[in-house]
Amino acid sequence: MYLFGMKKIVRVLELAGGVMDELASPTGPRKEFINNHCSEFMHMIKGIQSTLRDEIKSACEYRPFEKCDYSCRISNEICSKKLEHVLAQLDAMKQAIDQYHDAI
To answer: Which superkingdom heads the taxonomic lineage of this protein's source (predicted)?
Structure first.
């Protein structure tokens, strides 16, 4: 599962890099290329987000010590905050993409 998730993250980064390269192209960006890459990017991000939520949820259900779940709760809270931060960054990226599309 870990390797599969890493491949998805690498693909997302490749898509973002491809869009950035296209935007920096001296001949100007190709709209269809950018649209396709952005659509695939957002689709993959949703899949990654869903996987992360499922992993966090399953981690919350796991209790190695029945009477002591402090470390698990703290770990899950930290993961949750990290996920919120990533989602905020993704929302900002989506707004930038939408602004780009509106400008075209």
So the answer is: Eukaryota
